[in-house]
Amino acid sequence: MVPTPQCSRAYSPHVDSQHSDCVAAGSDALPNCFAAWSSREAAASLRRQSFALPMLDSGLSRTKMTLPLLHLTPFLVATSFAAGLNAYATVATLGLLARFELISLSPRLSLLTNWYVIGACLVLFLIEFVADKIPVFDLLWNALHTFVRPPIAALLAYGAASQLPPEMQLLSAFLGGAIALAAHGGKTAARAVVTPSPEPLSNFALSMGEDSVAIFLTWFATTHPYWAAAIAALGLVAVVVAFKYVLRTLRSLFQRTEQVLK
Protein backbone atom coordinates (compact mmCIF):
# COMPACT_ATOMS: atom_id res chain seq x y z
CA MET A 1 0.00 0.00 0.00
CA VAL A 2 1.46 3.36 -1.09
CA PRO A 3 1.01 6.04 1.57
CA THR A 4 -0.84 9.17 0.49
CA PRO A 5 0.46 12.63 1.36
CA GLN A 6 -1.99 12.66 4.26
CA CYS A 7 -0.59 9.32 5.46
CA SER A 8 2.91 10.73 5.27
CA ARG A 9 2.05 12.86 8.28
CA ALA A 10 2.07 9.67 10.36
CA TYR A 11 5.54 8.77 9.14
CA SER A 12 7.09 12.20 9.70
CA PRO A 13 5.90 14.50 12.48
CA HIS A 14 7.40 17.57 10.81
CA VAL A 15 5.21 18.40 7.82
CA ASP A 16 6.34 21.52 6.01
CA SER A 17 4.47 23.79 3.65
CA GLN A 18 5.51 21.72 0.62
CA HIS A 19 3.47 18.79 1.94
CA SER A 20 0.46 21.05 2.30
CA ASP A 21 0.96 22.27 -1.25
CA CYS A 22 1.05 18.67 -2.47
CA VAL A 23 -2.22 17.90 -0.72
CA ALA A 24 -3.84 20.96 -2.24
CA ALA A 25 -2.58 20.07 -5.70
CA GLY A 26 -4.57 16.86 -5.77
CA SER A 27 -3.82 13.32 -6.95
CA ASP A 28 -1.82 14.41 -10.02
CA ALA A 29 1.00 15.64 -7.77
CA LEU A 30 1.02 12.48 -5.65
CA PRO A 31 4.09 10.75 -7.21
CA ASN A 32 6.23 13.88 -7.07
CA CYS A 33 5.07 14.63 -3.53
CA PHE A 34 5.86 11.13 -2.29
CA ALA A 35 9.30 11.14 -4.00
CA ALA A 36 10.17 14.48 -2.38
CA TRP A 37 9.03 13.21 1.01
CA SER A 38 11.11 10.00 0.62
CA SER A 39 14.25 11.91 -0.33
CA ARG A 40 13.88 14.21 2.70
CA GLU A 41 13.38 11.25 5.02
CA ALA A 42 16.44 9.49 3.56
CA ALA A 43 18.56 12.63 4.00
CA ALA A 44 17.40 13.01 7.59
CA SER A 45 18.22 9.35 8.27
CA LEU A 46 21.72 9.77 6.83
CA ARG A 47 22.27 12.85 8.99
CA ARG A 48 21.26 10.89 12.08
CA GLN A 49 23.58 7.99 11.15
CA SER A 50 26.52 10.27 10.37
CA PHE A 51 26.07 11.80 13.81
CA ALA A 52 25.86 8.46 15.59
CA LEU A 53 28.66 6.54 13.89
CA PRO A 54 31.57 8.67 15.18
CA MET A 55 30.21 8.17 18.69
CA LEU A 56 30.40 4.40 18.25
CA ASP A 57 33.83 4.50 16.64
CA SER A 58 35.31 6.89 19.20
CA GLY A 59 35.70 4.19 21.83
CA LEU A 60 34.65 0.81 23.11
CA SER A 61 30.92 0.10 23.23
CA ARG A 62 29.43 -0.29 26.69
CA THR A 63 27.46 -3.41 25.82
CA LYS A 64 29.37 -5.59 23.39
CA MET A 65 32.76 -3.96 23.11
CA THR A 66 34.59 -4.19 19.82
CA LEU A 67 38.26 -3.36 19.56
CA PRO A 68 39.02 -0.43 17.24
CA LEU A 69 42.36 -0.54 15.44
CA LEU A 70 43.47 2.49 17.47
CA HIS A 71 43.20 0.44 20.67
CA LEU A 72 44.96 -2.65 19.34
CA THR A 73 48.50 -1.76 20.43
CA PRO A 74 47.69 -0.91 24.09
CA PHE A 75 45.41 -3.95 24.25
CA LEU A 76 48.26 -6.23 23.08
CA VAL A 77 50.73 -4.65 25.50
CA ALA A 78 48.42 -5.18 28.48
CA THR A 79 47.25 -8.70 27.62
CA SER A 80 50.78 -9.85 26.75
CA PHE A 81 52.03 -8.61 30.11
CA ALA A 82 49.12 -10.39 31.82
CA ALA A 83 49.91 -13.61 29.94
CA GLY A 84 53.49 -13.36 31.17
CA LEU A 85 52.16 -13.43 34.72
CA ASN A 86 49.50 -16.09 34.22
CA ALA A 87 48.71 -17.29 30.70
CA TYR A 88 45.82 -19.56 31.72
CA ALA A 89 44.04 -16.80 33.63
CA THR A 90 44.47 -14.43 30.69
CA VAL A 91 43.07 -16.85 28.10
CA ALA A 92 40.19 -17.91 30.37
CA THR A 93 39.27 -14.28 31.12
CA LEU A 94 39.24 -13.31 27.44
CA GLY A 95 37.25 -16.42 26.56
CA LEU A 96 34.62 -15.80 29.24
CA LEU A 97 34.25 -12.11 28.34
CA ALA A 98 33.76 -13.01 24.68
CA ARG A 99 31.53 -15.98 25.49
CA PHE A 100 29.11 -13.77 27.41
CA GLU A 101 29.31 -11.17 24.60
CA LEU A 102 30.91 -8.50 26.74
CA ILE A 103 33.67 -8.08 24.14
CA SER A 104 34.06 -9.03 20.49
CA LEU A 105 37.34 -10.77 19.70
CA SER A 106 39.04 -11.15 16.36
CA PRO A 107 37.72 -14.11 14.30
CA ARG A 108 41.16 -15.69 14.67
CA LEU A 109 40.59 -15.79 18.43
CA SER A 110 37.09 -17.28 18.24
CA LEU A 111 38.51 -20.55 19.54
CA LEU A 112 38.87 -18.90 22.95
CA THR A 113 35.07 -18.84 23.31
CA ASN A 114 34.85 -22.63 23.09
CA TRP A 115 33.75 -24.10 26.42
CA TYR A 116 36.37 -26.86 26.15
CA VAL A 117 39.14 -24.27 25.81
CA ILE A 118 37.71 -22.18 28.65
CA GLY A 119 37.30 -25.26 30.83
CA ALA A 120 40.84 -26.50 30.13
CA CYS A 121 42.29 -23.07 30.97
CA LEU A 122 40.28 -22.88 34.19
CA VAL A 123 41.51 -26.33 35.25
CA LEU A 124 45.11 -25.39 34.45
CA PHE A 125 44.64 -22.11 36.29
CA LEU A 126 43.47 -23.97 39.40
CA ILE A 127 46.49 -26.29 39.16
CA GLU A 128 48.81 -23.30 38.82
CA PHE A 129 46.97 -21.54 41.64
CA VAL A 130 48.02 -24.37 43.97
CA ALA A 131 51.42 -25.21 42.47
CA ASP A 132 52.51 -21.57 42.41
CA LYS A 133 52.13 -21.29 46.17
CA ILE A 134 54.29 -24.26 47.14
CA PRO A 135 57.83 -23.13 47.98
CA VAL A 136 60.59 -24.57 45.77
CA PHE A 137 58.05 -26.35 43.53
CA ASP A 138 56.91 -22.94 42.31
CA LEU A 139 60.45 -22.33 41.00
CA LEU A 140 60.29 -25.50 38.94
CA TRP A 141 56.79 -24.62 37.74
CA ASN A 142 57.83 -21.13 36.64
CA ALA A 143 60.96 -22.43 34.95
CA LEU A 144 58.90 -24.84 32.85
CA HIS A 145 56.43 -22.09 31.97
CA THR A 146 59.18 -20.06 30.35
CA PHE A 147 58.28 -22.18 27.31
CA VAL A 148 54.51 -21.74 27.78
CA ARG A 149 53.66 -18.14 28.65
CA PRO A 150 55.59 -16.24 25.94
CA PRO A 151 54.36 -18.54 23.10
CA ILE A 152 50.75 -18.19 24.29
CA ALA A 153 51.12 -14.41 24.39
CA ALA A 154 52.62 -14.44 20.89
CA LEU A 155 49.71 -16.50 19.55
CA LEU A 156 47.19 -14.18 21.19
CA ALA A 157 48.90 -11.13 19.69
CA TYR A 158 49.07 -12.76 16.25
CA GLY A 159 45.36 -13.60 16.33
CA ALA A 160 44.30 -10.21 17.67
CA ALA A 161 46.20 -8.47 14.84
CA SER A 162 44.45 -10.47 12.10
CA GLN A 163 43.19 -7.28 10.41
CA LEU A 164 46.78 -6.10 9.89
CA PRO A 165 49.12 -7.09 7.04
CA PRO A 166 51.03 -10.39 7.54
CA GLU A 167 54.32 -8.69 8.38
CA MET A 168 52.60 -6.56 11.03
CA GLN A 169 50.98 -9.68 12.45
CA LEU A 170 54.40 -11.29 12.83
CA LEU A 171 55.74 -8.13 14.46
CA SER A 172 52.79 -8.12 16.86
CA ALA A 173 53.44 -11.75 17.74
CA PHE A 174 57.12 -11.03 18.37
CA LEU A 175 56.37 -8.02 20.58
CA GLY A 176 53.67 -9.93 22.45
CA GLY A 177 56.04 -12.78 23.16
CA ALA A 178 58.82 -10.40 24.18
CA ILE A 179 56.56 -8.49 26.59
CA ALA A 180 55.32 -11.75 28.11
CA LEU A 181 58.88 -13.01 28.48
CA ALA A 182 59.86 -9.81 30.27
CA ALA A 183 56.88 -10.08 32.62
CA HIS A 184 57.60 -13.76 33.21
CA GLY A 185 61.25 -12.98 33.93
CA GLY A 186 60.30 -10.33 36.46
CA LYS A 187 57.83 -12.68 38.13
CA THR A 188 60.38 -15.48 38.31
CA ALA A 189 63.06 -13.20 39.72
CA ALA A 190 60.70 -11.91 42.41
CA ARG A 191 59.68 -15.44 43.26
CA ALA A 192 63.30 -16.55 43.56
CA VAL A 193 63.90 -13.77 46.08
CA VAL A 194 60.81 -14.56 48.17
CA THR A 195 60.95 -18.38 48.11
CA PRO A 196 63.93 -18.74 50.52
CA SER A 197 62.00 -16.76 53.12
CA PRO A 198 61.19 -19.03 56.09
CA GLU A 199 57.64 -17.77 56.50
CA PRO A 200 55.15 -18.91 53.80
CA LEU A 201 52.87 -15.88 53.79
CA SER A 202 55.09 -13.73 51.57
CA ASN A 203 55.19 -16.37 48.84
CA PHE A 204 51.42 -16.89 49.07
CA ALA A 205 50.71 -13.15 48.98
CA LEU A 206 53.00 -12.62 46.00
CA SER A 207 51.33 -15.44 44.07
CA MET A 208 47.85 -14.12 44.85
CA GLY A 209 48.91 -10.66 43.72
CA GLU A 210 50.24 -11.99 40.41
CA ASP A 211 47.03 -13.92 39.69
CA SER A 212 44.88 -10.92 40.58
CA VAL A 213 46.91 -8.56 38.40
CA ALA A 214 46.72 -10.95 35.43
CA ILE A 215 42.91 -11.22 35.63
CA PHE A 216 42.36 -7.53 36.36
CA LEU A 217 44.74 -6.34 33.64
CA THR A 218 43.11 -8.57 31.03
CA TRP A 219 39.66 -7.24 31.87
CA PHE A 220 40.91 -3.66 32.18
CA ALA A 221 42.51 -3.89 28.73
CA THR A 222 39.05 -4.49 27.21
CA THR A 223 37.52 -1.43 28.85
CA HIS A 224 40.42 1.04 29.25
CA PRO A 225 43.25 -0.25 27.03
CA TYR A 226 45.49 2.82 27.40
CA TRP A 227 45.36 2.81 31.19
CA ALA A 228 45.96 -0.94 31.19
CA ALA A 229 48.93 -0.49 28.86
CA ALA A 230 50.30 2.22 31.17
CA ILE A 231 50.17 -0.19 34.10
CA ALA A 232 51.91 -2.85 32.02
CA ALA A 233 54.52 -0.31 30.91
CA LEU A 234 55.34 0.52 34.52
CA GLY A 235 55.87 -3.18 35.16
CA LEU A 236 58.10 -3.44 32.11
CA VAL A 237 60.17 -0.46 33.25
CA ALA A 238 60.72 -2.15 36.58
CA VAL A 239 61.82 -5.33 34.79
CA VAL A 240 64.18 -3.46 32.46
CA VAL A 241 65.78 -1.61 35.38
CA ALA A 242 66.45 -4.93 37.07
CA PHE A 243 67.35 -6.72 33.81
CA LYS A 244 70.78 -7.87 34.93
CA TYR A 245 69.37 -9.19 38.16
CA VAL A 246 66.59 -11.01 36.26
CA LEU A 247 69.09 -12.75 33.98
CA ARG A 248 71.24 -13.78 36.90
CA THR A 249 68.20 -15.11 38.74
CA LEU A 250 66.95 -17.04 35.71
CA ARG A 251 70.36 -18.60 35.22
CA SER A 252 70.49 -19.77 38.81
CA LEU A 253 66.89 -20.96 38.57
CA PHE A 254 67.63 -23.20 35.61
CA GLN A 255 70.66 -24.58 37.42
CA ARG A 256 68.47 -25.45 40.42
CA THR A 257 65.93 -27.05 38.10
CA GLU A 258 68.59 -29.23 36.52
CA GLN A 259 69.72 -30.36 39.96
CA VAL A 260 66.12 -31.20 40.96
CA LEU A 261 65.54 -33.17 37.75
CA LYS A 262 68.77 -35.12 38.27
Description:
- The chain has 262 residues and is mainly α.
- Helix content is 74%, strand content 0%.
How many angstroms does the end-to-end distance come to?
86 Å
Averaged pLDDT, please?
Answer: 78
**Total helical segments:** 12
Query: What's the gyration radius in Å?
Result: 28 Å
Total number of strands: 0
Query: Main sheet?
Result: none
Beta-strand content estimate: under 5%
Tell me, what's the shape?
Answer: globular
Q: What structural class is derived from the secondary structure elements?
A: mainly alpha
- Kindly state the percentage of residues in helix: over 70%
- Helix-strand sequence: HHHHHHHHHHHH
List the uncertain runs.
1-17, 45-63
How many domains would you count in the coordinates? 2
Tell me briefly what this model is.
By secondary structure, this protein is an all-alpha fold.
Descriptive keywords:
mainly alpha; 2 domains; 12 helices; globular; single chain
Which helices and strands occur, and which strands form pairs?
Layout: H1 8-11, H2 17-25, H3 30-57, H4 72-85, H5 87-99, H6 115-131, H7 137-144, H8 149-160, H9 166-194, H10 201-223, H11 225-241, H12 243-261
